[in-house]
Amino acid sequence: MTLQKLRIGLVCPYGWDTPGGVQNHVRDLAEYLIEKGHYVSVLAPVIDEEAIPDYVTSAGKPISIPYNGAVARVLFGPIAFARVRQWITNGKFDLLHLHEPAIPSISLLACWAAEGPLVGTFHAAAKRQKAIFAIGPILEPVIEKLTARIAVSEAARSTLTEHLETDAVVVPNGIYADRYRDGEVRDGWSGNTLGFIGRFEEPRKGLSVLLDALPIISRFAPDVRVLVAGPGDSKEVQDQIDPQLLHRFEFLGRISEKEKADFLSSVALYIAPNTGGESFGIILAEALAGGAAVVASDIPAFQSLLGNGEYGTLFESENPQDLAKVVIELLRDQERRRVLAQRGKAYAQRFDWEVVAEDIFSIYEMALVGSKGVTLSSENRAWNRFLGREGN
Amino acid sequence: MEKYFLIALFVIFALWYLSYSATRLDRLHHRVETSWANLDGLLQRRAAVALEIAKSDLADPASSLLLTAAAHQARDAQMQSRSQAESGLSGALGLLLNDGHLVDGVIEKDLLRELSELTDKIRVAMALHVDAVTRTQMVREKPVFKIFRLAGTAPLPVTYEFEADVL
Description:
The complex is a heterodimer. By secondary structure, chain A is α/β, with parallel strands linked by helices. In chain A, 43% of the residues lie in helices and 18% in strands. Chain A has helices spanning 21-35, 78-91, 106-113, 130-143, 154-164, 177-181, 207-220, 234-240, 257-266, 282-289, 300-305, 320-332, 334-348, 353-367, 378-391, and strands at residues 7-11, 39-44, 56-58, 63-67, 70-74, 95-99, 114-115, 118-122, 148-151, 169-170, 193-197, 225-229, 249-253, 269-272, 294-297, 313-315, 375-376. In chain A, strands 3-2-1-6-8-9-10 form a seven-stranded parallel β-sheet, with helices on both faces. Chain A has a six-stranded parallel β-sheet with strand order 13-12-11-14-15-16, with helices on both faces. In chain A, strand 11 (193-197), helix 7 and strand 12 form a beta-alpha-beta unit. By secondary structure, chain B is mainly alpha-helical. Chain B has a single domain (14-166), classed as de novo design (two linked rop proteins), CATH 1.20.1440. Chain B has five helices and no strands. Chain B has helices at residues 2-55, 61-76, 79-97, 106-141, 143-147. In chain B, helix 1 packs antiparallel against helix 2 (61-76) and helix 2 (61-76) packs antiparallel against helix 3. The N and C termini of chain B lie far apart (67 Å). The relative contact order of chain B is 0.15. The mean pLDDT of chain B is 82. Chains A and B meet through helix 14 and helix 15 of A and helix 1 and helix 4 of B.
């Protein structure tokens, strides 16, 4: 990175204190940039204002709306807009980096309110949605203000091309690869074990596909066990499991980063049976960096992340038979597992923040060419004056 | 009375919309210019690095000649023939770098590293510029912009046809 120190404003559209891929990405990027000596301020909706780090500014309490098969905690409205404008004025930023500016939340508001070097990152990959086409004409001129667009995956990029007819540069999500490099093998987690990490209650994470495949797998590999890590109520899931198979399961609850590294080094196979709604698959990048042999469903995001099966084995999504077949083959062939894991680990280094942040930063540099920093949008000022006069 | 009020409101809205659209287009033109300035600068730097490489031990006399010619052509080209000249330079660099001979010497390694960094940047800069140009062309095609001549006298930006795969 260059010596030039910047004032960077990051906008996170989703509630800061709820777990999620975008939030993690913004947090990691902010902390990385701060460590490199830049001034960073993050604007995000926040539920508990007591428990936020220094660099986060609250834009207000988020509102829950259903979006893309999950509940999204977003924020909009006149008060939020006023806070966004105030944040932009006070921040005197060189550059704003807006995450998910096509979602009705504060990133979109910031994009509307600001002028200057704006970089937008698009995370979501979704099928064609009528709703987006309906608001397209309104979104279009706003999204157009972005100096540079980043998509986190090819899937996100094609979503963008389809919905908003604009292209983007692909920069993947980042992971701290060195955190997963030196996991220790734990006896309790090794052997013929299948690992699963994630919010298992959500249907799109696909734990049920693994449950359906397990009877077949256990017939061929009698000592197979399934380790499930992640937040959630395991009671409900346990009720769905055949009592005869229940002893094969172990629910670990939420695990720490260190435990995650050990987990990934220990399990025989890491299984990602997600059925969709995934744009990048950060957990797969982490699993690869942790040295796990990966089996994943063939949804587009995973296909492209795993290089069409080169760095992890793919099975047909939502097909338990195919999953069982792939898992049995790999459990029987330790050498193939070892080779797969080794190749995957080397490949995963390209998702390390050192590489990813460098790419993002060089896009910042391009967006900064010939600019004088971020200001409030001028047409907006005229419009507000007009509204103010009407109000009197 | 109410009718006039509504008409006035409509006129004001229409005026605002026109000014809003004009700002929008102005911003796009600005983006085309800055992204071009950026791309142009990077390409100039690449031509300079190519000349350095031609002078260095990396190149045999024949490829040195080829590279020097291509680099000068890329530097002197007019806007219309620019992309062709740059593609020519990409081709010449590709020929030299892909023949797989080993590189030793600190200066040579430095040159090659600089070239590959520049190439990465050029790829991004090109994507940004092409996006700005297509966007502007698209917007200028819209009826509101045509009827009210919101583009004024600004020339229609030309697409930069760069053969990205050569890089």
